[in-house]
Amino acid sequence: MTAITRRSLLKGTLATAVAAGVCPSRLWAQAVEPRPLPIPELIDARRQGNALALRAETGRTAFFPGRASATRGFNGSYLGPTLRIHQGDEVELAVTNAMPDATAVHWHGLLVPAESDGGPHQPVEPGSTWRPRIRVDQPGATLWYHAHVHGDTARQVYEGLAGMLLLADEAKERDLGLPSEYGVDDIPLVLQDKLFEDGRLVYPVHPLFMMQGVRGATVLVNGAANPVARVPAGLVRLRLLNGANARVFDLSFSDGRTFHWIASDAGLLERPVERRSLWLAPGERAELLVDFSDGRATALRTGPDPTLARGMMGEMGMMGMGGRAEPLDAAASILALEPRPRYRNAPPVRVPDRLVELERVNPAKAVRRRQLRLTMGCCGMEGGGMEHGMARGGMEPGMMGRGMGPPGGGMMGRGMGMRGMFGINGRPFELERIDLTVRFGDTEIWEVSGDAMPHPFHIHGVHFEVLSRAGSPPTIADQGMKDTVLVQERVELLVRFDWPAVNAPFVYHCHILEHEEGGQMGQYKTV
Ligand code: C2O
Ligand code: CU
Predict the structure, then answer these.
(1) Is residue 458 within 6 Å of ligand 1 at its C-beta?
(2) pLDDT digits over 281-330, tens only?
(3) How many H helices and E strands in the chain?
(4) Any idea what the Cα angle at residue 403 is, between residues 399 and 404, rounded to 5°?
(5) What's phi and psi for 491, nearest 5 deg?
(6) Bridge partners of 445?
(7) Which domains are seen in the chain, by residue range?
(8) In angstroms, what is the span from residue 417 Cα to ligand 2's centroid?
């Protein structure tokens, strides 16, 4: 009897697919051996005299054996180290640009004055170093850093310029007894979906991808396809970051087990919330406690993007790939989790009942209300319609022919092709225009809504609370302090402006990076 293993079967399928000239990345991902989950190197600022250095580089990364792709990374070829800074410290940051094109590096969720924020107003030219000096003054949280240069953010992040930034508040966290051994029972997970063609990373520039945001059928975790993590047979803390350009992940475990959600974007919740699934929109973070003391293997999985119509994703697959469709709307296991054997007399797992006392702002203190609508040229009330967007250099006829280009090159130059298609209240972003002025220290209510599809909305320089959704009290998933929120229906945000934007503005924008780049961004200063 011939033993046919699943692996040889898959390899056979792959060989057939390659021979036929059709090789969706799904096959590549299945054909590669499961590989241990890479854990980004941890650089703790306190062990470096509170001086941290990042170097943005171009490089090559083989996501699949023998298939190298042009990528970017910090201190390496793809993604960056996990930086850990501590509440109360002064930290010197240095960002060196060793790439041939300009960049900017934003500390997403970190509260610092606007000139240290790393947005489009702090470009780092090739060969130069940007040195912001910051004072860390906010609760412990899972933050991140990523490229944010004017006109080239989407591609640079897609190609790898992102990493985790952990803010530790040890005094507060110690008593809670949360798992905190980095990479062992406190595990960073950078989730990103990517599009591969014959095993090589591609950044599609077809107008449909630009409209919907770039998505792909392969989900990488910390840069790896098909990863497996060995975890202790006890309580494990997963720090999740949605580092995708556009996809919303609908996360759960393959065996349906529950977990405790303990932290949102800006830090711990008041109490753990037991759940079975959780959505994570681009830019958002969540910390989970998962109990593996039963010793059973499971997998972290994502459902199809819950914010997109299934038909649309099928169509995108077809058009974007020149007919070689990728199943963009499928559910997938993205990380296998295998507990190590449990040692005898292991202590029972304990999830604290209370986490923190949140410092809430009183909504009655709000002095102003503003309406912001995330508009799309095609559907906006004030955007001037599709023709307006196209007339401003949006979709040129030449773009329609080819669906994609290799990373690093690009027929659309620096992703500017959709500029003018997107805006806020109908106005596309302009670097030299200040859209709003807020009074330093004021509390405001921002009513945010959007055209055509859900948009993850992020404000720099603040943390906010969600006050309502579609006129009703927010759902349980909206609790805690946030810096990014998925706007499906009108949301009201309670925002206090405690960080100065005097020498430079702070931006606010949709975190679908193709939308941001297309102009769905504005900026404010404080007076
Ligand atoms: Cu995560 Cu303005 O960015
Ligand atoms: Cu958007």
Answers:
(1) yes
(2) 999 999 999 999 999 999 999 999 888 865 555 555 544 444 444 566 67
(3) 8, 34
(4) 105
(5) -115, 150
(6) 369, 494
(7) 363-526 (2.60.40.420)
(8) 16
Do residues 401 and 375 touch, judged by C-beta distance below 8 A? no
Q: Is the pLDDT of residue 505 over 60?
A: yes
Q: Which atom of ligand 1 is found nearest the CA of 509?
A: 2
Residue recorded with tokens 């004021």: 442
Find the 519 Cα to ligand 1 centroid distance in Å. 14
Element (H, E) at 8: helix 6-19
Q: Which ligand is nearest to the CA of 452?
A: 2
Q: Give the pLDDT confidence score for residue 418 in this predicted structure.
A: 58
Which residues have CB less than 5 Å away from ligand 2 (the ion)? 455, 510, 512, 515, 520
With a 6 A CB cut-off, is 525 part of the ligand 1 pocket? Answer: no
Atom of ligand 1 nearest to the CA of 146: 1
Contact criterion met (CB below 8 Å) for 218 and 196? yes
Question: How large is the greatest C-alpha to C-alpha distance in the chain, in angstroms?
Answer: 80
Please give the span between the terminal C-alpha atoms of the chain, in angstroms, as a whole number.
80
- pLDDT above 90: residue 171: no
Q: What is the mean pLDDT of residues 396-404?
A: 34
Q: Comparing 42-51, 205-214, 249-258, which segment has the lowest mean pLDDT?
A: 205-214
Is the distance from CB of 510 to CB of 374 less than 8 angstroms? yes
One-letter amino acid for residue 170 of the chain = E
Rounded to the nearest integer, the mean pLDDT of the chain is: 86
Q: Does residue 473 contact residue 465 with C-beta atoms inside 8 Å? A: no
Residue 116 pLDDT level (bands cut at 50, 70, 90) = very high
Which atom of ligand 1 lies nearest, measured to the CA of 106? 3
CB of residue 285 inside a 6 A radius of ligand 1:
no
| CB 108 less than 6 A from any atom of ligand 1 | yes
pLDDT one-digit tens code per residue, 3-25: 434 344 344 444 444 444 444 55
C-alpha 117/C-alpha 526 separation (Å) is 14
Angle, vertex CA 138, rays to CA 371 and CA 439, nearest 5:
40
Angle 371-372-377 (CA atoms, 0-180°, nearest 5)?
135
CA of 106 to the centre of ligand 1 (A): 7
DSSP 427-486: B---TT---EEE-TT-EEEEEEEESSS-EEEEETT--EEEEEETTBPPPGGG-S-BSEEE
Q: For the chain, how many residues are written?
A: 527
pTM recorded for the entire structure: 0.89
pLDDT in tens, 451-498: 989 999 999 999 999 999 999 999 999 999 999 999 999 999 999 999
Report whether residue 455 contacts ligand 1, using a CB cutoff of 6 Å: no
- Atom from ligand 1 closest to the CA of residue 508: 2
Mean pLDDT (whole number) for 124-150: 98
Question: For residue 510, which of 213, 239, 193 has the smallest C-alpha distance?
Answer: 213
Ligand closest in space to the Cα of 519: 2
